[in-house]
Amino acid sequence: MKLTRRFAAAAALVALLTTPAQAADPWQQVGTDARSGVSGLASEGPGSDSALFVNDNKRSGQPRLSRVSYRDGALAVGRLTWSGAEPNDLEAVEAVPGAPGEYLALASRGIVYRIKVDGATATVVDYAPLPAIGPGDDYESFALVARDGRFAALWADRGDGPDRPATLYAAPLTFAAWGQPLFGAVTRRAYTSSYPQGDGTRHISDLAVTDSGRILAGSASDAGDDGPFDSAVSDIGQVSLSATGRVRVALAATPTLLGTFPGYKVEAVECLPGTGDALLGTDDENQGGYVRTAPYCA
């Protein structure tokens, strides 16, 4: 099928990350240390050749947001200036539908930041806590669903090993006139990954939703700042948003394992508009961060 010009730039980014020369190991490095890993990804929109990624840093002045882009046949990475209240440990980022240049970024303890990106600067518009934060919850994922002008949000406590499954949350989403995210009634589902398993497993390390409503989840294991790491992406179920704004989540009895990635800790899964491909990102702690694509969103 011939791609329109609208999606040509995104297709070029996909092509760069899946060239035959890289088939044995298609990951490309975008960060070289623990401060520059990829904890969440958001495409900058249809026709864009770039995506934003959050860095899970905690100290003042450290990078919070970066951009990976396709330039002259190669990947380029640039750090963005963060203007406003500094978040602690950003783990996910998602574009706000219908609001070009605006994003929601989620910190691990449940604070959602609405930001406006203009060039190399990200400005905080507002921030608010997630609803229904559970005891010990640690969030690494956030995804948005848009249907006929209505929105819903999905996020998850990542879980921890065999004794703590992930908790997947879903709720309708609206916005106050000044930009603050407002959440409706919350539903919950427990989820345990089929791969990886064992101690240190984060059952949901990120979430993405395809155009048809399929829920994709990253899962990862982390033995420490030097690894070893292991991770996977699975199709775990379906989400729907009704004309009245009701959110329904149906998890699969047997999730479909789409791909495994020994040696890497996938913490970011993002469907690239118009391509059917997912852009994956890793936060491999002292080993930095990597990106690649995989055909998971068709």
Task: Describe the protein in words.
By secondary structure, the protein is mainly β. The chain contains one helix and 22 strands. The chain has a five-stranded mixed sheet, with no helix packed on it. The longest helix has 10 residues, at 8-17.
Count up the helices: 1
- What's the count of strands? 22
Q: What is the makeup of the main sheet? A: 5 strands, mixed
Structural class: mainly beta
Strand adjacency order, main sheet:
6-10-9-8-7
The H-and-E topology, N to C, reads as HEEEEEEEEEEEEEEEEEEEEEE
Query: What Rg, in angstroms, do the CA atoms define?
Result: 17 Å
Fraction of residues in helix: under 10%
Structure keywords:
single chain, 298 residues, mainly beta, five-stranded mixed sheet, five-stranded antiparallel sheet, 1 helix, 22 strands, 52% strand, disordered N terminus
Quick overview of this protein structure:
The chain has 298 residues and is mostly beta strands. It is built from 1 helix and 22 strands.
List the helices and strands and how they pair.
Layout: H1 8-17, E1 28-31, E2 40-43, E3 50-54, E4 65-71, E5 74-79, E6 81-83, E7 90-95, E8 102-107, E9 111-118, E10 121-129, E11 139-147, E12 150-157, E13 166-175, E14 181-183, E15 187-191, E16 201-209, E17 214-222, E18 229-241, E19 247-260, E20 266-271, E21 278-282, E22 289-294
Parallel strand pairs: 6-10
Antiparallel strand pairs: 1-22, 2-3, 3-4, 4-5, 7-8, 8-9, 9-10, 11-12, 12-13, 13-14, 13-15, 16-17, 17-18, 18-19, 20-21, 21-22
